[in-house]
Design brief:
Structural class: alpha/beta
Number of strands: 6
Bound molecules: fe (ii) ion
CATH superfamily of the largest domain: Hypothetical protein af1432
Number of domains: 2
Largest sheet: 6 strands, parallel
Shape: elongated
Order of helices and strands: EHEHEHEHHEEHHHHHHHHHHHH
CATH topology of the largest domain: Hypothetical protein af1432
Strand order of the largest sheet: 3-2-1-4-5-6
Oligomer: single chain
Radius of gyration: 24 Å
Length: 384
């Protein structure tokens, strides 16, 4: 290969956390493809995908910067992580082509990403402008994918999930990440428990929630945190509300009613038991307070109101209500609509969520909660 080094490499990923294998892959591409530099480009947290990055934007950037420090030719590109909302690789590459007209970018992929490349948004466009550079896992091709330049080096498998699980389980993980990154993980206790929970809380919730509800709560917590950041609410409070909101969801209606009566909690619908499942909001709030997990009145109120709403709702209440209705694990069509609205308009998203819920209730011939009706009227009046 005689061309002078004038091309750049693009290696995207969630880097949650960045591993030695990422660095080895970037270095191999740099050398073998004679690139001027390779940029490691962390992805933004995607509200549309459950199980997005665990570590915060700042933590992921800090780890990446530490990982490339002192490694010639390796750089960090914060183009995606600093933009709100999900970023598609084709869009980032388009922006790079515009911003740096003289540069050519090669797209560096691990074998799995390469095998799935056909399903990427605008894969053809990417391929037209950007040579693919692929690291095989082993010498023999085990998967198929588009035309690519294969690296001789085998940087080894990358599994951020395995690293995170090892950290939670107290297993061996330090060898998988650069020493500086290990120091950051230890110093900031990243990944030790899910974001927003202490180890004890995580243990309790894991025990109380079914695996499915755990995943739902995790999705709501992450989405609530994201919404909070967008709408000027404390993200940590929103996240905690998300984690705990459904802790009483699996209780039977009879158990919810008994608990509520024993605690002398008001039951707005009186003796009519058909609405009792909605008690899982107020009961959860009471339960987590009494068990010493939460003492923040605003967070408790948000948890209580996530099922029944209220004539007046704080921004935190709205964030949890909307996040619960439209978390990434929700599959009904209204969820996607509310998700999109919620990115910029919290009240409109709330109104749409409420509308969908009330329609559903009406269609099934069930009783409407008067608090929902009151909230609906208020939102309509305020927005006209
Ligand atoms: Fe709920
Ligand atoms: Fe929920």
């Amino acid at each position: 290969m005689s061309r002078p080094p004038s091309d750049y490499g693009f290696l995207g990923g969630s880097f949650d956390p960045v591993q030695k294998a990422h660095i080895a892959l970037a270095r191999a591409a740099l050398k073998e493809r004679r690139l001027k530099a390779v940029y490691l480009v962390p992805a933004a947290r995607s509200p549309f995908k459950a199980g997005g990055p665990i570590a915060s934007t700042d933590d992921r950037l800090a780890m990446l910067r530490r990982a490339v420090r002192g490694v010639p030719g390796l750089r960090v590109g914060d183009w995606e992580i600093r933009r709100p909302g999900p970023s598609y690789t084709f869009a980032t590459l388009r922006r790079l082509r515009r911003a740096f007209p003289g540069r050519r970018w090669e797209l560096i992929l691990g074998e799995d990403a390469w095998a799935g490349f056909g399903g990427w948004r605008r894969a053809r466009e990417i391929q037209r402008f950007h040579p693919l550079v692929v690291a095989r896992r082993t010498g023999t091709p085990t998967t198929r994918g588009p035309v690519a330049n294969f690296l001789k080096a085998r940087p080894g498998p990358v599994s951020s999930t395995a690293v995170r699980e090892a950290i939670v389980a107290g297993g061996a993980w330090r060898d998988a990440v650069p020493a500086g990154v290990a120091a950051i993980i230890a110093a900031r206790s990243l990944y030790a428990a899910p974001a927003g929970l202490s180890g004890r809380e995580a243990k309790t919730l894991k025990r109380l929630l079914t695996p499915e509800r755990w995943r739902h709560s995790e999705a709501v917590a992450g989405w609530a945190r994201e919404l909070a950041e967008r709408h000027g609410v404390d993200p940590r409070r929103a996240e905690r509300a998300g984690w705990w909101h459904d802790v009483a969801k699996s209780w039977s209606p009879a158990r919810l009613r008994t608990y509520a009566r024993r605690k002398k909690m008001p039951i707005p619908w009186g003796k009519n038991t058909t609405l009792d499942p909605l008690l899982h909001g107020p009961v959860a709030a009471r339960w987590v307070r009494e068990h010493g997990f939460l003492n923040d009145k605003g967070v408790l109120a948000a948890i209580a109101r996530h099922t029944v709403g209220g004539p007046v709702m704080t921004r935190l209440d709205k964030v949890l209500y909307v996040a619960d209705f439209s978390s990434p694990d929700r599959r009904y069509p209204a969820a996607a609509r509310v998700r999109r609205l919620a990115e910029n308009h919290l009240d409109r998203a709330l109104r749409e969520a409420l509308r969908a819920k009330m329609l559903h209730t009406l269609e099934r011939g069930r009783v409407l909660m008067h608090t929902s009706v009151g909230l609906w009227n208020r939102l309509v009046v305020e927005n006209t």
